[in-house]
């Protein structure tokens, strides 16, 4: 099923059930007032939401509204826990080769970045940042949302906690990223607010494309209306099962925890392109000794979308514009 | 005023107003159901809570309960945004000297660590971790809690957003810390759940000891009932004004954001001791070539407390025990 959060002026908005074709929606506040309330009470809420979803898809609900992706916030407008992985090692390998970096990695330990969850942007919100000199960049990613995960959860049990998936653009400020990476304590100015697609979906919406704790679909990325890349999720070097098990070694994860893939990146990047500017610039640097693709300027637009096997948009699109803060 | 969160089986508990002497409390659910609700609506809630607090201290409230610090959760059982600083450079300097580390620092940029907020422990909760080989350590710290902070807030305006202060123990797993520091992406296994003192207090409770965006009081640390250290907060190299301004350069901070000082650390550590094991071990290593103070074992207890000028406990005490997960 597909769920969204209608803006209503409150911090957490109102829960909507959205039809599979993303054309219609209906209010689900009688089941759970917000997305966070739904995930905290998923065992009770999910079957009820699914009945509404089925009836909505069958055209049996009279009080439908037109689904307007401009009227929604991020599915979770805020979250108590957000960790982003960097699970496509191909991306890191390209970056290290271009810039002669040596990241001390362990092939059994995923790179994970603790992130803030208090301010997630909706799919069509203008994205404000204070200076073009910050070298603004995007990263096309997918996230999972978990119910309560006990401390010590093993990989074999981890995927049972994945209740929803979301599309997101992990905006990154590269000027600050290299400095903060060198300090070693993680990212602050390098990773401001994150931008999410219109709907969160249950894994069954992906059919066979959700397998081995990975999303086997292309992530379509466009910059100013032009194709930028469409890497596939199947090349994740660490599955979500691996990632969840690693994190929960010595912490429990609260319901509504968001965990991201890291920027999509494929070995055949010559054909499928990239999902972030930094990677394309690194590829240019390796090939030609310098990067020619510029970082983002005010007024530029970005679009991210993922289509299922039938061509249906899974999450709806992120389509947003960079603006002066 | 002093506020706490009574456990009631729900995720966010119930808001209590607590008397200055920490002996009595009364329910404040008619003003705000939870601490998070109070901070999101602080302008309306704070004057009402203060009236209750004043009457409670004057013995004018009939429906008082005995304040039991064993019955409370962390003041904020969870938070959407938690950043810990490392604002006492003395601590880092000792660590670097002992272990020949070179952290790429900029004297104008505070070290900041993005942290998770979905699972804060109460002051007397047993602390479970999976292995003594993780080299468990504590860090005695103070945190501020903010109301909504706009993007681009300047240092001159930052302290007006500080609404509450809290005492906390930033539990740290040193085996993982050195590895994760080397990777550069921040901490995951090195920094599991954080432990908070019984009450959150407004800055006026500190009197003159809240000055220049710093807490000019000693933080008393005991290990298994024995004195371990009592460093003072006045030596913070970055004030909370500096820290908040730095963070909000390109992000807004949601109401309920928690920002920590980093482990208290003073230049006269020979007299006042330390607030974490790693620092004492580093001092031993510098003096004798090796550390003799062991990391935490199961069954050990830790106590953290801060007294005001009159000898009154400001936040109540954290007093908890290490246990096998």
Automatic annotation (TrEMBL), chains A, B:
Classification via InterPro entries: FAA_hydro_N (IPR041072), Fumarylacetoacetase-like_C (IPR011234), Fumarylacetoacetase_C_sf (IPR036663)
Signal sequence, renumbered to the chain: none
Sequence intervals crossing the membrane: none
Domain Fumarylacetoacetase-like C-terminal per the UniProt entry, residue ranges: 90-310
Gene Ontology terms, MF aspect: hydrolase activity
Protein name: Fumarylacetoacetate hydrolase
Keywords tagged on the record: Hydrolase
Tree of life domain: Bacteria
Fumarylacetoacetase N-terminal domain: residues covered: 1-78
